[in-house]
Amino acid sequence: AIPAFAAEDQTTSDQTTALPKETSTVTVEPEAGVTVSLEFGDITVKNGDGLDVFVYDGSSAEVKTGDIDAGGKGVLAYNEGTLTVETGDIHAGDEGLYISASGNTAVSTGDIYSVNDGIYVSGNGTIGITTGDITTDAEGIEAHAYDSGDLTIETGTISTTGEHTEGSRGIWAEAVDGASITVISGAITSTDEYGGIGVYAMAEDSGSVDVTVNKDDESGIAIDSAVYGAEIYAYNGTSELTVNGDITAENGYGVDL
To answer: What is the phi/psi pair of residue 236, to 5°?
Structure first.
């Protein structure tokens, strides 16, 4: 089993560990005031998360892995300090990425396939996420930003079926209390016949949401949805949607403002 890097394991302010392919959950948990830099090979975990990272106030972690194949979450991260994560492709039986952060957070992955949300992220820190294509049976991206949060996500294409969560959305982004969310994605396909939505964005209380779909191609279908193409709302905030291409909504509105 791979040990957790907890307080008792750390005797210096800098650690670098390189390990081959892992077959149990990799847990990184630096003590307060400690900086860790860790590198792993591919991670394959049948009944658990691939990578769990817990960074507390005053701590810093840089974690790099190969591909992750996990029965649970691909990456689970709680960050109050400074966190950088880089992985290969992620195949997850739960969320691909699950991140809750009040500190500065940067995550980069390859393609994501997940049974639950491709990306779930919430927080009030500076959060940046870059991924390849996302294929999921639930929400493609679910993002919630609060207070002074500055949340930026850039992905490839997003495809969601709703087989795990009825009413699934390609992108679901909400910003409140002055927070800001920026999402840039490739084309979105949402085939959930019970409420599939390409993009749902809401900003309130001086929050802002800015979504761009089909970033590399200005032709063809940018959003192909079983129900609504996009729902955009602003309550004392600002919501902006840019779609480079056509919107197809089988059983609802193309765009509802």
So the answer is: 60, 30
Pull the structure tokens for residue 106: 């940067």
Per the structure block, which two tokens stand in for 125? 């820190």
Q: What is the pLDDT of residue 63?
A: 94
CA distance 132 to 127: 17
- Inter-CA distances, 11 with 30, 187, 252, Å: 11, 48, 60
Q: What is the pLDDT of residue 179?
A: 93
pTM score, two decimals? 0.88
Which token pair is 57?
A: 């106030």
Tell me the pLDDT tens digit for each residue of 27-76.
Answer: 999 988 899 999 999 999 999 999 999 999 989 999 999 999 999 999 99
pLDDT tens sequence across 100-158: 999 999 999 999 999 999 999 999 999 999 999 999 999 999 999 998 889 999 999 99
Nearest to 178 by CA among 210, 211, 148: 148
Report how far apart the first and last C-alpha atoms of the chain are (Å, whole number): 51
Q: Would you give the DSSP letter of residue 111?
A: -
What are phi and psi for residue 8, nearest 5 degrees?
A: -70, -15
| Residue whose C-alpha is closest to residue 186's, from 107, 253, 244 | 244
What is the DSSP secondary structure assignment for residue 7, as one 8-state letter? G
- How distant, in Å, are the alpha carbons of 50, 52, 96, 224 from that of 67? 10, 15, 12, 29
Single out the residue of 170, 172, 60, 71 nearest to residue 115, CA to CA: 71
